[in-house]
Amino acid sequence: MGERGKFFNYPLTASNALGHLGAIESAACIVSYLRYRAAPIRPEVSFQDWVTNRFGRRLFEIFFRTYTEKVWGMPCHEISADWASQRIKGLSLRAAILRAVLPRGNHDGAPAIKTLATSFRYPRLGPGMMWEQMRDRVTEAGGQVSMGCDVIQVHHQHGLVHDVVVRRPDETTERIPGRAFISSMPLRSLILRWTPSPPPDVIRAARGLKYRDFIVVGLVLRVRDPFPDHWVYVHDPTVRLGRVQNFRAWSPDMAPDAGRSGLGLEYFCNRGDPLWAMADHDLIALAARELERVKLARAADVEDGCVLRVPKAYPVYDNGYEARVGVIRDYLGGFRNIQPVGRNGMHKYNNQDHSMMTALLAARNILGADLDPWAVNTDAQYLEASDDTGKHAASRPDLGSWAREERQAPRTLSRWSAKRHA
Predict the structure, then answer these.
(1) Cβ atoms < 10 Å from Cβ of 381
(2) Is residue 353 in some structural domain?
(3) Among 44, 200, 215, 386, which residue has the least CB neighbours within 10 Å?
């Protein structure tokens, strides 16, 4: 939903985009696009530079600035261009127009664009099913899974990590030795728990890494289908709301019951700011009001709610982050038995499938392979890619025959068409 109060389909459709922008505004956007194609911004340093060069300044202001600044809490010119090149790689105005005009047709033989995927494989009861299955398989094989524990120290000597100290929910501590370690904890936290401490430049690099926190307000509505979409991205700057998920649209089994709907309203913030500190009942009331303000449902239809606060949900790609990660990566490269993985573990804004792939590579390395988890998301395709016929095409990077068994989609997954509004 844009700041003009209009809903735009995503991926774009020609009739929807032209109808809501209008002929004059559409023409102005094309002129702006051509101007920056002829004379692009150089050097291309920021997210603002990257998007403007590929869409023009006018479309950047309409579709990109407001939502991006909600997510990151900082101006677009302070966000690294790396974030755009990683998350919306391959997308341009030309590509979007071709997909809008010829959604199932020939796109000059170009590969599928990650951000224009139109179908996903989604667990029937949500992504937690995958982690529950993994937990069960580990315990069935004789392993131990400890929940709710905090790593408070990582002990190392002579280029090897020997053990970690964890604090359990009952406040007791335990020292756990190991021969190989995989870390998905925030990269900053890992370094600050290193014992003995790393060199001062590594500590400085870790302290310089920033994160963006996240609040989900879950609402139960006494209506079955308030809207048909899976996601609605809210660009409107007059509300704090960033995105709305409609859980029944993902899977009917995620709805409270046959006559009610469950929505997740997402807010981006920093721990300690007024939104993070707001009482749960006030957040639920705010979410209900804003849901009505953006014309997705009536506040009067909200009958229950809950709040989930997620610290360090997003690693921030501010200017200089890459150099800081590089310092830490070089340092950790001197240790032979620990591998960082995942979004926070690598300070890399990966999607879930990319994060899982980094862990798969790390596990294979423990078994004797020589693979680079840091290379994931450089050339990898999204798991939810789709071909031009609309059929699901679960593609992954070609990392050798060892990966064949992982390429099969889990049998517990259900496919749901992802018709989205931006």
Answers:
(1) 17
(2) no
(3) 200
Backbone angles phi, psi at 215, to 5 degrees: -125, 130
Q: How many CB atoms within 10 Å of residue 66?
A: 18
Phi, psi of 294 (to 5 degrees): -90, 10
CA-wise closest residue to 277 among 238, 307, 320: 307
* Average pLDDT for 261-273: 95
Instruction: Please say whether the beta carbons of 309 and 273 come within 8 A.
Output: no
pLDDT per position as a tens digit, 229-265: 888 999 889 999 999 999 999 999 999 999 999 999 9
Considering its fold, how many domains does the chain have in total? 2
For residue 287, give the CATH number of its domain.
3.90.660.20
What is the rounded CA–CA span in Å between residue 408 and residue 13? 31
| Residue 198 burial (C-beta neighbours within 10 Å; 0-12, 13-18, 19+) | buried
- Predicted TM-score of the model (pTM): 0.79
Tokens read off for 123:
């667990």
Does residue 292 lie in a domain region?
yes
State the chain's maximal CA–CA distance in angstroms.
67
Domain of 68?
9-116
